[in-house]
Amino acid sequence: MFMNKFSSRILSSVTRPFSINSKRTMLTPFLESKRPKQSPEYDYSTLSNYKSFQIHHTTLNFSLSFEKSVVGGNVLFDLSTLNNSVNEIDLDTSFLDIKKVTIDGKDDGFNVEARKQPLGSKLVIKTDLEANKKFQLQVEFSTTKDCTALQWLTPQQTSGDKPYMFSQLEAIHARSLFPCFDTPSYKSTFTANIESPLPVVFSGIATGATEKEGTSIYHFKQEIPIPAYLVGIASGDLVSAPIGPRSHVYSEPHRLKDCVWEFSGDVEKFIKTAENLIFDYEWGTYDILINVDSYPYGGMESPNMTFATPTLIAHDKTNIDVIAHELAHSWSGNLVTNCSWNHFWLNEGWTVYIERRIVGALHGEPSRHFSAMIGWSDLENSINAMKNPEKFSTLVQKLNDGTDPDDAFSTVPYEKGFNLLFHLENVLGGPAEFDPFIKHYFKKFARQSLDTFQFLDTLFEFYPNKRDVLENVDWERWLFTPGMPPKPLFITTLADNVLSLVKKWVSSVKELKSSDDFKKAFSVADVKDFNSNQIVLFLEELVAQSCVPESSRINWADYATASSTLLDIYKKQILESQNAEVVFKNYKFQTTARIQPSYQQLADWLGTVGRMKFVRPGYRLLNAVDRELAIRTFEKFKDTYHPICKQLVKQDLEL
Ligand code: BES
Ligand code: ZN
């Protein structure tokens, strides 16, 4: 019999299941007191009984209907029971229409339980399965109009004359595309056969296509086991071009040329750099899909096929670090995976760390530190803006009560996670000392899912001679305490010029009066050597002024001449920039300075971007200066946004 949670808890408090394996090094007494009862920790964000089965392979047979905005078809699982007999199979579903269930080809009864927000509706299949039995489970289904995993665009919503669809399944939306064991703890190889009238891309390697009366069936395989959240599908008027020896970029035709220019120089360099740091790229090809404007994220690490936002096309290659990030997930996240969303930092913190190591290796340590500094201020902003920092700003999360991982999503796992690894790198003696651990960790956990304690065990085991160093790390603060972590020392070379220009502006604003005064004191030469990331910091710091003492800070709204002259002097770098990061910070500065014409410009811009990183704070800015305009703008554009984005902005605006 499969033990219920209650009995396993009682048992494990008496005999810890893994203390039998006496080889494990003890952590500090504090950490030991926090150790979960089972490891890897149970995932409470799934309703499936994933612990009862081993999964061997999954076959997706999907058919896309653009007319109905529906994916229909079936999913076939090759499974076996473990050492216990099982009388029920529970799968995750969310707003799916379940049509039929068969086990080894024979029809079986099923029941879809009432929806439990936000986890969805459990699909319960009663059956008698003996221990250690291999079997095939097939479920026929279709998606419904409430699907949160997909966005369907009409031809009018794309830039061409064809419709478009894409999926976005992380963290718990796979269950809204197909019935599954929707947990990062559970990995399967995949075959996918996807019928569509338009080209299809998938999180795997294309193995050909079969023609079928006006449509085609596109075939793919993913031979490395992956969790359900990493499945990715998109279909539309997609074309592709090579951007490296193992890489292509896919996009709608009108963007292809810009995509090739933006990415072709760097992708292979990134892969080689990461291979040096960790070990060989195991997935074969590395392609990028540049999605349509409404794509809600910067990027998503679908294996073999990174999905990315068109806002990466900055025409100056400065947003390419997002590609370094998604590529880095090929090791952190896709090979070595968090076992539940409580340990999401293992995915994202490690990925930011590797992303910045790539940047550092290619552009020098000052660039790595510069990017870390920007991350630090993002972290401060994010924690300051949180409605519930007590709950959501600890590194290790506690979503066991059914909290929606989308609500827990923030900069914290990214930047606190990065800073923890950066701190460890420093206290352990720098990259030379830390790099062997990186290789060891990724080798040890490749193709597995783990929790924070397995990471800690591995760390303590790897450095038996540096135990004192590791014991001195303030683990309680890093892992379980809300708020900012200890601040590291950053190399500030690339930021220094930016910050001194900010200081000069802030102090001059009170002294100088006319536009001409400012034009004598400042000129475009001030910023001519700044790259876009430095312009971003410049604008951010003009607003935050964290580099000047609190008593000297100014309110830009009181200095209209100064702010408008500033924008006039640096017009080319700020107002004319096509880099979405700069465009966004420009609106942040202008709305802070209450430059009224910018309100409508920001509103218009919010109709052209779908990336939540810009859309959500964009509406917050607008709401702060003109709530009526914010609401009117949201009403106008809401149906062009991805369903998740629409829902979150609605919450943000308290509608
Ligand atoms: N895996 C994430 C995106 C994600 C996380 C989607 C959680 C849904 C739920 C991806 O790797 C990511 O972190 N994207 C970032 C870009 C990055 C450079 C920080 C983004 O979208 O902004
Ligand atoms: Zn990421």
From TrEMBL:
Principal subcellular localization: cytoplasm
GO molecular function term, any single one: aminopeptidase activity
Co-factor requirement: Zn(2+)
UniProt xrefs under SMART domains: Leuk-A4-hydro_C
Subcellular location: Cytoplasm
The keyword Cell membrane is assigned to this record: no
Cofactor binding note from Swiss-Prot or TrEMBL: Binds 1 zinc ion per subunit.
Ranges where the Peptidase M1 leukotriene A4 hydrolase/aminopeptidase C-terminal domain occurs: 493-653
Alphabetized UniProt keyword annotations: Aminopeptidase, Cytoplasm, Hydrolase, Metal-binding, Metalloprotease, Protease, Zinc
Highest rank taxon of the organism: Eukaryota
EC nos: 3.3.2.10, 3.4.11.-
Keyword Glycoprotein attached: no
Catalytic activity: an epoxide + H2O = an ethanediol
Family: Belongs to the peptidase M1 family.
Function of the molecule: Aminopeptidase that preferentially cleaves di- and tripeptides. Also has low epoxide hydrolase activity (in vitro). Can hydrolyze the epoxide leukotriene LTA(4) but it forms preferentially 5,6-dihydroxy-7,9,11,14-eicosatetraenoic acid rather than the cytokine leukotriene B(4) as the product compared to the homologous mammalian enzyme (in vitro).
Alphabetized NCBIfam families for the sequence: leuko_A4_hydro
Protein name (database record): Leukotriene A(4) hydrolase
